[in-house]
Protein 1
Amino acid sequence: MTNLDFLSLGAARAAVARSSLHRRLEDAGAEFAERDGWLVAVRVPGEEDHVPAIRDVTHLHRVREGAAGAVIEFRAPGREPVVVERRWNGSLDELLDVSAGTAALQIEGPGATQVLARMTELDLSELPVVGQVAHTRAWVIRDGEESYRLVFGQEFGHYLWEVAVDAAEPLGGGPGGTP
Amino acid sequence: MRLAEQPRELLDRTQPVSVLFRGSPVPAFAGDSIGSALYGAGQRVFSRSFKYHRPRGLLCCSGHCANCMMTVDGVPNVRVCVEPVRNGVRVEPQNVRGSLENDLMAVTDKVGGPFTPVGFYYRTMIRPRRLWPLYEKFLRNAAGLGAVDKHAGRTRRFDTENRQVDTLVIGGGTAGLAAAREAASRGEHVVLVDEGPEPVAGQPCEVLAPARAIGIYEGNLVPVDAGPTLVRFRAGRIVVATGALEQPLLFPGNDLVGVMLPGGVRRLVDLWSLRPGKRAVVIAADEGSLGIVDELARGGTEVARVVDLRSERLGRIVARGRRGHLVRVELDGERIDCDLLVASGGRQPAYSLLAQVGARVEYDANRGIFVPTDLPEGIEAVGAVTGDVGDAAVPAATYNGAGTKGKCFACICEDVTDKDVKRAIAEGFDSIELAKRYTTVTMGPCQGKLCHLPSIRLYARETEAPEAEIGTTTARPPWTPVSLGVLAGRPHEPAKRTSMHHRHKDLGAKVMWTGAWRRPHSYGDPPAEAKAVHDSLGVIDVSTLGKLIVRGPDAAAFLERLYPNRYGDMKADRIRYGVLGTDGGRIMDDGTIARLDEDTFYVTTTSTGADTVIEWFEWWNAVWHLDVDVTNVTGALAAVNVAGPNARELMRRLTDLDVSNEALSYLDARRTHVAGAPTLILRIGFVGELGYELHFPSPFGVHVLDAILEQGADLGVRPFGLEPQRILRLEKQHILVGQDTDSESNALSASMPWIVKWDKDDFVGKWSLEQVRERGIYERLVGFELADAIPGVPLEGGQVVIGGRPGGRITSARWSPELGRVIGMAWVPPALARDGAEFAIKMNGGVEKARVRLSPFFDPEGGHLRS
């Protein structure tokens, strides 16, 4: 096996990573701190009143993909990795870490289901599922009763953040930090 | 006149509000509709009809007919009879010239009749044809429904919401409520939608009101218009409880102000506590409608005469008016003064949603109504919509006799009279579908709710055919008019951006669309940006390139089969340019392939071709089942290209790797750290100068770009965009697939015969290319310069002229600041593919001379690239 470290975020020496949602959070006035080599928006002014909250959880997720399927993990105590796609019965150990290619956002709090219902036709009682969210392909994973995570191509970060916050605002939601 | 508090009134008399009607305040209460507020203030004329501009007043008070349509806060065609008041709401009449009481366009009613019969626009105002713009302007001004505020489109917000439920109940009357309660008691997830204005009694389940179901679509999809939100329901089971609609009677004067349906009168009295008139006549065909007498008594209206059509036969009804207002009714000659005529010809089940989803409709001759049957799976009907409307008489088709004067309307929305219908039949439009389209009956805002059944009855009489034979017209969504904004929802237009996008904007980039990507066209000065690459140092974001990791024991064999190039003999850490071909030997895409080790290759593709190429690789992998894995890392890696004489010095500052020409030569690949980020360096040269393409994980995009700009500041670094890149690559005659090639181009005609390795085993397109080689090519892609120094740049796509005829086309053309002249590429006949050959191109309105150049315009030996 060759050295594919140039794909790996972990192989960085002195480079700081930003998620593709970074500028949106900066524009919302977020405070940033470094966490595990990432610049993370830990607080957004006014977030106490934003229910549901839209948060950037890109730095907390990991996606491994390959011929055998795809696995998404979120770094949080007690969370099991979610196998979101299974193609054929190959070994999941051979998957490549492509986390750098995806971003993740969380819609969390009362009203989250309604916000997500305004972004996608997917049946939210049958998660996790991959499908169309606001005309782009995304994995939708349930975190809790009113808590969801979307994992999608990082090039759509700016766009999907805008869609999520726009859908949430009339319902009382808005951007939140990830402490 | 406002009555004392009624038991079921919707009014909150402790909350007075004010409506601005024609600029003047009209008092109302919270709970009023705009229509009830205006009626309470004495307004009786609410609109002018579509064609004849006849005064129209409240008729149904349920948002079904068109009589009360006004413009509210700039939004046209609002049915004010059910539109709730808000304090300060601005209400204006529409489609009048003058005032509601005195519309100058009413002249069409007096004079127009003979000139504007049914279908007149198929016969008149056609010749002379050049006067059509004038006719059109006249017609547009004379008829119509309100005007759209051109600026309002961007100020209203509409959302779309998707819901999945077990049961959806449409209609919150008695039957609908019972069905909802039953489903809820069984533990189903039920939602009930009701159009209002009466509130839904009790809360058997989640209720959405006022909300109108627009239609029922395949897959039990029911879009519901709930004001600013379109709620798209997918239901396991749909229960249609839409009830039955009161039908008007047809008689001369049936459109006068003061002629109302029983339900309309009921709502005025019960919901808004208004007296509907001083003296009334009631004509009804069923028990429920006759009950209106009670409401009239409560409202303080004198009831002068009640006709129960079940027991009393009427031959002729005539309503007479003064200035459009009812003053007298004549029943078979008996004259009764009155200002209110409550007339109903029975109730027709509102079957439209059921018909849309596939139910059949049958005529019940005993009760004179159409009834739905044969409901498809998953669809149920309850209540009056099933035909359960009680005992009713079948009214006559019309109640006018020969010689009775006065327009008798079959379709009030579209101003179609019984004479129009008769004329249409006489002209041969005697099938209901044809006649509908010719007369436009049922095509107005009510969509047949108040006119479909009466018009069928009229047809039956005039054609002497039974109603069952005539049938109904096809029911289609939307069942009720719906604004385009609600259907459009939020504009979700996906855009892809690289991880450096915002830094580009900080640097002044002018952003353009390429496919779904947003990319910098330039940073304000394309020629200067191109010149900087030649003179010092430029940097461009090429993160949009497609990128694939191809790995496995069969990786080399896989690529050998896909490409006409040879890859099996590549050494590790070396790069080759590749051209991907179709089965037909046509050029599909191009890019670089780097061998990372024995079993691993790194393939790049064009930005816009990335998705196609990835699919192509995966498809062939599934066909051949080789031991190889293809992983798409297009989004995972960002990429920048740094190019120019100072590129090496920049690289020295950013990495520990030995970047001397000996250690890292042209077409070498290296893995190392650049600016602290793990990076794959590809030394390639699309833009013709010493250059390094850096591929590293996307999240480090801004970090690396900032490092390049900082370290390169004293080296003269300048970011450049797509436009300067186009100039630079053209100087080297590097093709852009899709720009310089099309779906017919192959490697031989595109002047790259060296790409094809004929001695290889079979590869995709090999057979086709062998045919081309044998047959010969019909065209060649060449570079060209203009023979003379003339102003202007030839158009891309412009014609090559051979012997006075089109003989080829220009694919690319630019003015090169480095070379000081216009350069380009074009397809020409093979015979002209010689250095110095001249040909003509269409340019500047005439023909100019161009000269072929077969080798790159800039640095043909490639010395800069290899330096």
Note: Chain A has a mean pLDDT of 90.
Protein 2
Amino acid sequence: MGRRIRISPQTLSLLEALLHKPTTWHHGYALSQQTGLASGTLYPILMRLEKLRWLETNWEQPGTAAGRPPRHLYRLTSEARAWAREELSDAQKRKFWKPALGNA
Amino acid sequence: MSTNAPKSDQRFAPTVARAIVRVWPAETREWGQAFAAELPAAETAGATSTWLIGGVMLLLREWLKHAWRSLGRPIGSSASESTAAFTPRCSRTPRTPLWLMLALTLSSIAILLHPEVRQALTYLRSAYTRHGWTPEEWSSYKELTRISKTNRDAHLLALLSLLSSNAEQRSQLSQEAIQRDPSLTWIDYEQSRTPVFDLRKQITISSDRIARLKEWDPQNSIPHILAAEIIADSPQHEEWEAAIRAKRPSDAQKHIAANPVWIAEMHAAFSAPKYDSYTAQATELVRTVSSQFSIRDPRIAEYILSWKRVPKFLLLDDYAKFLTIRGSDSETIGNTQQALGSYLEILRFAERVKLGAETPDEQYFVEHIGQTAGEKLAPLYASLGRSNEAWMVSFQVAQWKAEHDPRIFRYMPLRYHRAEFKSLVWSGLLINLAGLSLLLVLPLALISILFVASRRKTPAAQRGFIDFCASLFADAAPCLLLASSLLIFFTYHPYAQISRAFLDGGRTAPSLQSFMSAMMVPYAIPDNFDFLHDPVSQWSALTAALCLLLVLFLSRMLLHRSKSVV
């Protein structure tokens, strides 16, 4: 699965949120609300996942919502989903992390 | 969800978000836009503020990463630009990563600030600008003068009297120094100094001071030589001027040699038990004041010892000739005792000077008169059957002849063998070339780096020949700067060590000759490179370079114009 990164509890929380609806595109603010991560914590994790090509990104179509700019969308790649499930399971077994949303 | 958020919040948050996106580093600006696009989703003012604070933290983080990454890129290139290839229009960007450029430049600055390198550069500046040739221009002299206003230390006053160019000040300072410390009476001899290159100047020292010097040092030749010089001074100048007016050779020597008072003083000088021109005392004075007041400027020692008062050799030569003639005349009439006495007087004086004198020019002079006397004395001894004495005199003469090679006499008051002199002047040339390259490299480096940095947003296809040259020089400049700094340091370091050791004194202190040679190095260059120090050559080179640049620009302008017309 390419280069491994440091799996912090915050990263695991984000992976859980992304796996909640794995094929759906997620907004940044929504992810922040789900995981409880501030923007200053959330976006570095997203940038790291994107650099490792575990995260797909996309922009909303312009004009989707009037009066505001297009938003950036995120979801895990198909290869990354299996890895993410594995990591979440390992972390739970090690009691390193507790799920907030339930198993993905 | 607050639908009645204050208007100021509604304006403020997007303004801040836009500002954050504007200053976001270009390579990750998309993420800044992503962050800003989420802002309308924040439901409360508190949520908006929290989101914005997070954005500011993100921005700082991205900027730190951008700054760190830019150290690994050459100056003038952006993250998206390829630095590896030449473009079709030769608009290469520099190759050197910024961190390396900074490291090289800072290293060069550190070396240039080293005291030894600063010393070498100061001397180089003197060699080219004639600035700093007199003590009054030195910060060390000014500092010592300032100290002397409140501290009337005898040694300090004595040293200042040797450095000052004002005759009245010299006299006052030396008198006060001697009054405070009579062991400094020898500086009376230094006060009788006249400019070397102005023969019209006469020796001005009062008879009281000469008498004081004689009383203080009765066994020394020097006070008698000084008295004889005073006696001969006026008649000599009058005769020279008369000879110039009458356009005839001067026979000043004949007039002087007829003066019995002068002969008596010279006889006392040649017969005195010791010869001491106070070079050692002058050296110790410099060392004492340097260590006492922690002002260690080798130029002070160099100045005092370069201009060290020594006897007027012409006058000593006149007396030696007088004795030689008297000896020859005595031989002719069969008065061998008087002949022996005349020749021995010269020879013994020469031996005492060889033992007591420290400056090479004193040594050089007495080798000459000693040889002349010895060549008369040896056959006379032989004719009297005193073969051992004849042999010893011949041996002495042969030894002095071997040392008295005019070819090894360069840059008075020093003397060198050819190999030694070559080594000095080539070291001097290296230092001069390194200094000149610094002078050229520093402004060109600054200009090229500023130029490249200012053109960093210009598309590669629009960069031309000047961009190419500027980027080439921006790459080369830090290396050239470091190389020049290191060259100056390593070339001058051994000589700086000699200067320092000389000022420190002690048993391992280098000789006067070594010290003066070390001080000479930044000014010395091989004869073929004399043009470097010649102002006319400097101006010619500068004019030629400017003309070349002008021709280059004009030709490019004309070419450009002819292309536009076509």
Note: The helical segments of chain A are 9-20, 28-35, 39-51, 78-93.
